[in-house]
Amino acid sequence: MERFASKNDTEIAVCACICAHTGLKAREIAALTGLERAEVNRLLYASPLLHELCWQDREYRWHGIVRQERPHAGLSEFSGFYDTAAGFMALTEEQWLARLREGCVNIGRNLNDTRGLIHSFRDCRRTVFDLFTDLRDMLGPAVDSWETVFELRLKRSRRVRIYADVLILTENRAFSLEFKMKDKIDPSEAAQAAKYAPYLEILLGPRYEIIPVLVLTAARELYTFTPIPGLDGVIPVCSGDMLFNVFDEYMGFLNR
Q1: Are 70 and 171 in contact (CB under 8 A)?
Q2: DSSP assignment of 18-73, as one string?
Q3: CA angle 136, 88, 142 (to 5 degrees)
Q4: CA 146 to CA 159: how far, in whole Å?
Q5: Which CATH class is domain 6-64?
Q6: Within the chain, which residue ranges are assigned CATH 1.10.10.10?
Q7: Each residue's pLDDT tens digit in the chain (256 positions)?
Q8: Which of 64, 109, 211, 238 sits CB 3.0–4.6 Å from 104 for a disulfide?
Q9: CB–CB of 181/203 below 8 Å?
Q10: Do 49 and 154 touch, CB atoms closer than 8 A?
């Protein structure tokens, strides 16, 4: 799938440069990226997302919160739950839920359960657990080091709000899973699934292909692609039992 937003290339370059080093001044960022210093300064002070992901010390050096390499140190600061696939699989459902609750409190995620939030959390967890069980059978222990995020929330500066139900990070791909306990495709939910892909490109850097997916957990044996309203592109839509097919679509392990 093609990148979602080439207009973000300068932000991607600046964020990746900062996150790959330990403290850079604007002139150093400009030299390393090949951008004009004025453009670098404009982004550093005007980009809401860079305000989320970077900070400036007293010597005017910029630092990244999330390291753009595996493991993604700092990503847990924006996550309700963050661990490797092996760490996730080793937890019981109640242990996982306790960690998720604690993490959600730390990132300011509202845990109001009046609309069945905890039930939806459990539904997500069961689907991801079954996915990793399937993928372990197909790929073996290579899956164990993949990073798993539940409830990604970027809104610390209150200037931008970026959400993702589940992120699964392989060596060079980020699967952003939007979960709905439904069995029919809603175009607005396809748009919601794709909405944050451009921002995840900045968060994770140029090495990662971002793959948004709509997962309908009340459906069965569903795997298709649907148009993204307002954009020239499609995203995969699947039921929980067919989610491994999305990973095979982009990784091609069933044909090896």
Answers
A1: yes
A2: HHTSS-B-HHHHHHHHT--HHHHHHHHHH-HHHHHHEEE-TTS-EEESS-SSSS-T
A3: 30
A4: 30
A5: mainly alpha
A6: 6-64
A7: 444 444 478 888 999 899 888 899 999 999 999 999 999 999 998 888 888 889 999 999 999 989 888 899 999 999 999 999 999 999 999 999 999 999 999 988 889 888 899 999 999 999 999 999 999 999 999 999 999 999 999 875 555 677 899 999 999 999 999 999 999 999 999 999 998 888 888 888 888 999 999 999 999 999 999 999 888 889 999 999 999 999 999 998 877 5
A8: 109
A9: no
A10: yes
For residue 54, give the amino acid letter.
Answer: C
